[in-house]
Amino acid sequence: MKTILVPVGSSKNAQSHLQYAVDFAKTFGAKLYVIQIYNVYTKAGTMIKVDHILERESMAFLESHIASIDTKGIEVIAKTFKGKLVDTIEKVCEALNVDLIILEPRTNSISDEVYLGKTSGKIVKRTQIPALIVPEGYVYKPIVKMLLAIKSAIIRKEGVLKPLQSIKDQFKSVLNILLVKTPYHNSGDFELNDELKSLITNTTKVESPTTFQAVLEHYKNHSPDLLCVVRRHRGFFSKLWEEDIILKKDFHSSNIPVLVLSGLK
Hints:
This protein is of the alpha/beta class. It contains seven helices and twelve strands.
């Protein structure tokens, strides 16, 4: 894991979040890009050119933001981009060869009842970039135990387990897997390939209507430092992603980081 991206918003948690990202990146010896994306909406009859003003203000904000935390000697690079959020994030990640995005649950100051806000929700839901969602105010600590929750262990894409492998190797973590038999279970869904099998310490098989519900029921038994789920078109967060927002009352494990992998198939 060599390159990590942190999109920055205006939340009160932004400083704490960036400090976590720095501490995480330092552990891996990774380069950290801190970015802000702005868009320009033209108003009829306006003659003022605002692009350069927004870019300048955005860069000044990022530089001040970075100066407010302890960078611990790692390379932290500030960049601003103009464009639509998801399209721009995807292009930036491809151009910079990003291995992981570290996200705040809420990049803007919104209701306390919300766990995953609209901006972060869009990034997690609408891209295929591995993302680490870090709870507000969460202080960096080694990841000793991880729980991977999936309903199918079939892997067809190359490299999708890389973030999981990197974290496990770096922290010498225990990785437990929760295999969830849903009403849509197919023969072979619980067959682990050699790559995944080599990562797993313990296996638990459960039956549940959804992977999401199984996690809510079983994750406390495992006491993980990190929950790992797989992004699917209609997957783990689909029940809650209809509006790109997830409420805390619906996602009770919001006190630990969540690693969202790209789809396995």
